[in-house]
Amino acid sequence: PDSGVTEVTARKPGGATWFLTSDGLEKNFAALSNAGTQVAAFTSDAAYYGKLVVYNLESPEPTRIGSVYNTQTHQFPRALEWSPDDTKLAFPMALKDGRDALYITPSDFSAPATELLRISTGHRIWAYHWSPDGQQIAYIWSETKGAPGTNQQAISVVNLATGQTRVVHQFGLYDGRSLDVGWSPDGTKLRFTRTALGNNGALLEVPANASAPAAVIYQTPGIPFQGRAFSPDGLWIYADVTGSRFYAPIANPADRTPL
To answer: Does pTM surpass 0.90?
Structure first.
């Protein structure tokens, strides 16, 4: 769910209900752990505002509740994602000073959340994804101050150990808009979707550690191709093409399975 949801359901292949919670807390940006055993979500319930909740799906372990941001200085979270080993959670946050920041918190809430990076005023973090080894995070950021259709985007990578960032790919003014970014399974490439002028959709990739032109993997001429999520193993993409939602192997995006 994106927002305002009080129940979260996970289903195994075949449609059997795996997990359902209806504890009355309003949940936002629910995220299933990579092991498939936990669900994390923000809650905007009055009693727990500014907190993360984590539910264990396969044991009677109590729900964990952690305070992860200050409601006096932070406006609202934008997303939520588990690290590859499920020991950390990352989330971008809109700050009340007009900037965006990216935070990391231990998933067991054994330590406070820490700010990994903060981008300049007039820019926003749109999407992000952990590297396969959990040592880096790639993210898409863009200007927000320009006229509609003129805001430029870029893909950057931040190193968790050093906090250093580098720009991997800068979109040209007419290169279109990207909604998501993911890693190849070996961590050497970044994949992203793009919808350019004329609704020309494409799935592209660039080297993660070098500056090089983007290579096109798949195109949908005249049709918007909107990536919504890359699988943690880097092998699949969940996407939306003119309202038709599906998942497909990145090796052959035309081989779609409808959702």
So the answer is: no
